[in-house]
Amino acid sequence: MLDNLAQALSAHFWALMALAAMAFAAIDLVNRGATPATTLARQWLLHGALYGLGLVLVLNLPISMLAGAAASFRLGIGLRAWADFGFAGDFALWVFFYTLTQYLFHLSLHRVRFLWSLHRVHHLDEIVDSSTTLRHHPGESLVALLVFSTLAFILAPPMAAIVLWSCLEFLTDFWTHGRTPLPDGLARKVEAVLFTPRLHRVHHSAFEPQTNSNYGNVFTAWDRLFGTFRRELPERLGLDDAEASGDASRDFDKLLLDPVMYLRRRRENKA
Ligand SMILES: [Zn+2]
C-alpha cells in the first residue's frame, strides 16, 4: 500500500508540492497578525525565485537522490543489493539514515564557516513564514545534493521510499516554518516526537545559542540524543549580525552575493 501511494506521489510530485505551498500561504495569510499581506507576497516572490534558481542551477534534490539510488542498485553495490527488508523495512531504514544525515548536515551548516556563509541566507529572514522553506542559497542546495545523493548511492533505497519521504519532509518544512496554529496541549504531545512551528522558531532566533539548536526538521529525537534540543521561545527572529548584511534579507541579488560579502567581512575583521 505504501508502495502504491509513493508511486502516485512520484507522478505528481511538483504539482502536489505547489498545491501544498498555496495552502500554507493561505494559512499564513489568515494568521498574519500585524504583518502586511504585501510583505508575505514579497516573501513568496523572493524565496520562490531563489529556490527556482537553485532548481535550474543544480537540478533538484529528489531527482539526484533517485539517480544515486538507481546507479548503485544497477551496479549491485548499494545496501539493498545485499539484503531484502521489504518495502516497509527499506522505508524505515531510509528515514533513519536520512534524518540522521540531515541532522549532522544541518549541524555542519552552522559550525563550518564556509557552509555557514551559505546557510545564513536562510537565517537572515526576520519574518519567517512557510515561504522560508524555499529560502536556500543555490550553493547550499548544491552541497546538499552531493551529500544526500551520496547517501542514496550507499543505501540504494527503492525509488518509492525516496519520493514518499521527500513529500513528507517538504510538507513538514512548510508546516514548521509557517504560522499554522496548534493548541498548546496538543503541541506538547506532538513535540514529544515531532518538531512544530513553535519549536522551529527557536532555531530561527536571532540569539545565537538558540540559532544553534533544534537542527532536526521532522523528528526531535536526534536533537534530544545529541543535546541540542531547546524549547524556550525566541524574542526576535533573524540574525544578530543582520545589520552588517544591509538589505541582504530582502534583495535577490544581495542574497546571492551575501556569502562572499560575509566571508570578506570576516577576513577584514580578522586583519
Ligand atoms: Zn539552520
Number of strands: 0
Shape: globular
Range of helix content: 55-70%
Order of helices and strands: HHHHHHHHHHHHH
Structural class: mainly alpha
Radius of gyration: 19 Å
pLDDT average, as an integer? 87
Taking the sheet with the most strands, its summary is: none
Beta-strand percent range: under 5%
Descriptive terms for the model:
271 residues; mainly alpha; 13 helices; binds zinc ion
Helices and strands, with pairings:
Layout lengths: L1 H10 L1 H18 L6 H22 L2 H15 L10 H26 L1 H11 L14 H18 L3 H19 L6 H7 L6 H7 L4 H4 L9 H6 L25 H19 L1
Bound molecules: zinc ion.
Question: Could you characterize what this model shows?
Answer:
This protein is mostly helical. It has one domain (2-28, 60-270). Helices cover 67% and strands 0% of the residues. The chain is built from 13 helices and no strands. It has helices at 2-11, 13-30, 37-58, 61-75, 86-111, 113-123, 138-155, 159-177, 184-190, 197-203, 208-211, 221-226, 252-270. The protein is globular. The chain starts with a helix and ends with a helix. Residues 106, 109-110, 119, 123, 203 line the site of zinc ion.
